Structure formats: structure tokens, C-alpha cells
Amino acid sequence: MLRILQSWRAGLAGCVVALLLRYYQSQSSDRASVSSQGPDVTAIVLNWSRFPNVVKIASVLCDPALNSVIQNVTIWNNEPAPLSVADFADAKCPTGKLHIYNSPTNALFQARYIACQQAATPYCFIQDDDYLVLPEIIRTMRARIPQSAERGIHLLPPHEMLSTTLRPISPPGTDIHTGFAWLGHGAMISRTRATEFLQLMNEYATDEQLKMADNYYTILANKIPEVWFDQGIPLGGGEAFTVGSEGDERNERHIRSAIEMLGKILQTNDSVPYVNRNPDSASLGSVLIAPRIRGSDALFETNIDVLPAPAGILDDATRNHYLDHPPSHAVDGRIDTAFCPISGAQRGEYLLFDTINGISPHQNASLVFLADPLGCAALRSSTFEGSADGMTWGSLRPSHLICDPEHQSISAETPKVSTQCSISLGHAEIPGLRYLRATLLANVNLLWCLYEIWIDAGTAV
Which domain of life is it from (predicted)? Predict the structure, then answer.
């Protein structure tokens, strides 16, 4: 009887999605066709209770800075009151770029995946209505998504990154090896994966579970999601969907439900889409950070331990240190914040910059660090390498690190002295130089800090 009831509920959920999908298709016949050249991302934003924020977000997504990436912007309106393109006049979107879909019912979070499934582009950028994501970060996500399409790219602020890091999902004696990450802070996924996910959910999920699709998306893939630190720009306002202990308990209930669903699927021999049946050996591994440096497309990466091992249960002091000094503070464009690894650093750990667009040999560019005295000492004992492909590395010599005592400052927020150190890239004999890496040659056993890392483009030579 239970199996019959589950089958009936899943069938009903599938009918709901089918009806929404059919209605969405009927309202979206003017979608642009896929282009082999130019922008190939559809941006999807759900509107529910923060319409002024949605207009502001649409203005960013329609900004000329994203013309090479975003082909269409879809606003899925879950509110009963209909919207029109005229309501978005302040967003200044070019004619034909903005598409409004007035949903006949509040589809909640499954709406993202339905819109992505029907997109005219191979990739989708999705976000909630309470954060702004800078254009340069979206461009960086697009540059990296082809190699990350199976896992997707998920932006997380430090508190969410901590939660994701502390809760890997790998019950002993099972083939489950997965993780949980939210999508609402900004995520880029492939249309193919969104389609496969909906096919799976239509077969196994109830209508309530479909509406809470975000709680299931990364877990059911049975892969470790790719997560990037991002400071985000909170917008606030409106009414949040998750409020208080009741909202938290609902989220936890659906996360547990997703794990149970994955376990049941893996125990069968059914041929299903989306789920990886081979245990994923990957882990969160190195930390990826989307720099908040206006106008700069780049990705910062480090494998320096940011939590003491084992990282199961943290005391308040460790948790607070992590949240106050996360790796993202090394590339947030502010010198009053800092990345301070609580466990110091070990020989062989690295700091890596993917400049995305490469370093022009005609620019006298430099890689610049702003660090405290211990940080400067660690950098002085590091090797600096460059690469065109991220696999084959060559020394950046004859350049060497210069720490300028004239460029010292004391932040108003901290009594620590910071010194600017740089290494010239102008004479690096590496054709197509794109990746830069500093590898530590000695252990750092005390607390040290990096206030900022950036690329100084220099002047033409």
C-alpha cells in the first residue's frame, strides 16, 4: 500500500511539473535560438517578495559588461500579481533580452530547473533575490563552467561555506559520497544537468519535494559539488522564505529526505538519470574563491588548511576566527580585512591565481601581496611559477619577490603592520601565461595574515 501511495504521489508531482512546463513553453515561444558564437548563458531569477531587488539584479544581468556571457534574462514570477517588461524599465535591459514568466502557481524552487530546462542556451546562471553577484564573477564562472559542468559551480558566503565543509555526506557501508550546497547565492549549472535532475525528481519525488528542489539538487547527484567562496552583496528587504527554527527544521527534513532518496535509488538496479552510481573519490580539496576586484576576471585558489583537522566539531573561537578571516578576505578589494589561516601553513601548500584572460607580454604586470610580517616571511621563502594551462609550470625567474618597506600601513581595524610585496611578470618567458602560483617552501607554525592579493596590470612596454 505504501509503495502504491508513493507511486501515486510521485505521479501527481510529475503531472504538476508537466503542466507548469507546458504552460511555460506556451508563454516562451520567443526565446532566442542557440548561437554557436557569443553569449551562451541564460540568467534565471525568481520573484516572490523582493521585487525592487529583482529589478536591481536584472540591471546587473543586463549590464553591457555581461553581453559576452548572458544571452537572456528570465524572471520567473511566483507572485500572484502579474509582471511585464515595462515594470523593469529601470533595469535598462536591451529589447528582447528580458523575459517575464508569470507562473499560474507558486512553484517555489523547482521553477529554476524548469526555466533552465527550457533555456535556449547550454548553461544557466541562477540566484535568489537577496544578493548581488558582480559581473566579473559571473564571467569567471562562465570561463570555468565547461570543466565543471557535471558538478556545477556554487557561490557561497563564508558561513554557508563553513556549513558545507563540515557536513560531507558519506554514510559508511553505502555508495553515497556527496555534499550539500545552496544555489541561491549564485550558481552556474548546465541545461543538461537541470533536465536530468527534473527527470529524476518527476519519477521519485512528491510535489512538496519538487517545490523544495534546491535541497535535493546537489545531494542526488552523488558528487561533491564545486563551491567557491564569494563575499556576496546582500540586498535584504522583503520576506525571507526560510524564517526561524521552523524554516531551518524544514530544510533539514528535506536534506535528510534527499539522502534517504539517494540511498534507495542506489540500492536498486534501475537505470536513472542524474545520479552517479560510482562512488565519487573527490573531496572539497582546495579552496576556490571568486575575487571581488572590480573589472578583474580571476579565480583565487589555495590548498592551505583553513580549519584545524579534524574539522568535525568546532569550538566557538575557531568558528568565529574562520568567519572573521576566511580565504575570501584575501581578494575582497579591502585592506582592512585579512585571510589568516588558523593552523598556519605547511611546506608544499600554495596560493594560485587563474587570471582567466592571461597576462599580456606587452604589459609590465606584477603579482602583488599585502601581508603581515609573518606572511611576508612565508612569501620570501616561496617559489613562484607560471603556466599557460594550469598543468605544466615554469619558474617566473629572473623575477624575484620584492617587499617594499616604504609600502607599510597600519589598518584602522587592526594593529598589525602590513607590507606590500610584489613579483614582476613582465619578463616571464612563458608563452600564454595565465596561471600564477606561489608554493611555500617552509612551514609557518604561527598565525599569519594576507590582507590582499591582486594583479597590477602595469603599463604597456
Answer: Eukaryota
Q: Report the half-sphere exposure of 2 (CA within 13 A, side-chain side).
A: 0
Q: What's the count of helices (H) and strands (E) in the chain, helices before strands?
A: 11, 19
Could you give the residue range(s) of every CATH 3.90.550.10 domain in the chain? Answer: 9-30+38-266
The whole-angstrom separation of Cα 198 and Cα 210 is: 9
d(CA 83, CA 77): 7
Statement: 9-30+38-266 belongs to CATH 3.40.50.300: no
Mean pLDDT for 114-140 is: 95
Considering the segment(s) 287-456 as one domain, its CATH architecture is Sandwich (2.60)
Task: Give the pLDDT mean for 391-420.
Answer: 71
What kind and span of H or E run contains 376?
helix 373-380
Q: For the beta carbon of residue 317, count every other beta carbon within 10 angstroms.
A: 9
Cα separation, 51 vs 57, in Å, equals 10
Q: How far apart are CA 314 and CA 310, in angstroms?
A: 9
CB 193 within 8 A of CB 154: no
- Judge whether 450 and 302 are in contact, CB under 8 Å: no
Q: Where in the chain is the domain with CATH 2.60.120.260?
A: 287-456
Q: 449, 377 in Cβ contact below 8 A?
A: no
Q: Which helix (H) or strand (E) holds 160?
A: helix 158-166
Question: Whole-angstrom Cα distance, residue 378 to residue 220?
Answer: 41
* Rounded alpha-carbon distances, angstroms, from residue 141 to 59, 146, 295: 19, 9, 14
Rounded-to-integer distance, Cα 349 and Cα 46, Å: 40
In tens, the pLDDT along 50-71 reads 999 999 999 999 999 999 999 9
Q: Write down the pTM of the prediction.
A: 0.87
CA geometry: angle 264, 14, 191, nearest 5 deg: 85
